[in-house]
Write a structure and sequence with these properties.
Number of domains: 2
Order of helices and strands: HHHEHEEEEEEEEEEE
Shape: rod-shaped
Number of strands: 12
Radius of gyration: 62 Å
Length: about 400
């Protein structure tokens, strides 16, 4: 079991060591930051353009609304004009109807006058025949003659009046018919103009309403796009912040100098009694920890980092309960084993003295045992070379 645990721990160190170099160049991070900042600027410019389009759409919508109001006013005025025109149309129709009725009456009078003229002609023809039958003039015949002459004169005067009236009525009938024809033509023109005007107004109103609907749709689309851009900007801001944090961590890691030059200068990770020194072997259990030291601690003993660094591993590890490995740079690592609770995660940056966990209870030894190990360039080294004196109470009894 000890060989397997030591092999696994060695492989764990290879994995931590072979990970991302501690002193990697910051150029890639700076490049990513610059690229994200350019993307943010592009999105900000796009957001500004979209806002301009939205403002323009609102302005256009206001203008169209005013046009629609003006158009509605014109439509109302023209509707009033159309109502007046329709009244004139009705008046014209009534006049046409009355004119037709007048023509009928005139035609009747003309027919009556024509009948009277025919009767007068027949009467004149009869009187002419009587006059020719009077051979010898006498007193009675003279009276009859003069009476006939007066009748003829009166008949002639009446015939002239009748003819004049007949002629006037015919002229009036012809003029009335021409007026009716003109009114009918005017009526058709007015009705056609009315329909054309109505159709034109409907078309213009539909066009304006359609355009207004398009503007509102375009404005809504612009607002949706603006919201999406805003979300992208926030995401990129978070990304840039993360990259800045990564850059700061990388810059800070670059200052890690390791503990090679810190001999007899580092604080102890725990307080307690030294139970197993570095490199000492013996039982199978002791062989498991010969690469480091074992320290018996009080209950609830906090474990602190001996130097600033970056957590390379934090989690359960067979044979060591929960294990934490901290990379201090320059090939320097510290290992903290047999922990019950840990307060750090992989990737965390810690300072000297940062609390990283609590020592676990060892049921086999019936005590709280803390395992501590230091490595330099992958090789285990004696932790006591780096810790200040006094570091632990010595008690080498197993």
């Amino acid at each position: 079991m000890s060989k397997i645990s030591k092999l696994c721990l060695g492989m764990l160190f290879l994995w931590v060591w072979g990970g991302k170099p501690l002193f990697a160049e910051l150029s890639s991070i700076e490049h990513n930051i610059k690229q994200r900042q350019q993307e943010i600027q592009y999105l900000k410019n796009e957001r500004r353009d979209v806002r301009k389009l939205i403002a323009k759409a609102k302005k256009n919508e206001w203008g169209v609304t005013e046009v629609l109001k003006y158009l509605n006013f014109n439509i109302k005025a023209k509707k009033d004009a159309l109502v007046e025109l329709q009244q004139k149309v009705e008046e014209t129709r009534s006049a046409i109807h009355q004119g037709k009725a007048g023509l009928v009456r005139l035609q009747r009078r003309i027919n009556v006058d024509q009948e009277r003229l025919e009767q007068q002609i027949k009467a004149l023809f009869y009187l002419e025949k009587v006059r020719k039958m009077t051979v010898l003039p006498g007193v009675d015949s003279l009276k009859h003659y003069f009476r006939n002459q007066r009748i003829l004169q009166k008949a002639t005067e009446f015939d002239l009046q009748l003819l004049s009236r007949l002629h006037a009525n015919r002229n009036l009938a012809e003029e009335s018919q021409r007026n009716l024809d003109r009114q009918s033509i005017k009526l058709k023109g007015l009705m056609r103009a009315e329909e054309e005007q109505k159709e034109l107004l409907r078309f213009e109103k539909d066009q304006q309403v359609t355009f207004l609907r398009y503007l509102r749709k375009d404005q809504k689309s612009g607002l949706n796009k603006l919201q999406k851009i805003q979300v992208q900007v926030e995401n990129l801001n978070d990304m840039v912040y993360s990259l800045e944090q990564e850059k700061e961590e990388s810059r800070r890691q670059k200052t890690f100098r390791g503990f090679y030059k810190q001999k007899k200068n580092l604080p102890s990770p725990v307080s307690g009694t030294l139970k197993r020194t570095f490199g000492k072997s013996g039982s199978l259990y002791n062989n498991l920890f010969k690469r480091g030291v074992l320290v018996a601690t009080p209950e609830d003993q906090l474990v602190v980092s001996i130097l600033e660094g970056k957590v390379g591993f934090s989690g359960p590890f067979r044979g060591y309960e929960t294990l934490v490995i901290i990379d201090h740079g320059k090939g320097s690592f510290s290992v903290y084993g047999n922990l019950e609770e840990v307060y750090v995660q992989k990737g965390d940056l810690v300072n000297q003295g940062t609390e990283i966990g609590v020592v676990a209870y060892n049921s086999q030894k019936e005590s709280y045992l803390f395992y501590f190990e230091t490595r330099y360039n992958r090789r285990p080294v004696n932790p006591l070379r780096w810790l200040k004196k006094p570091y632990w109470n010595k008690n080498d009894n197993d």
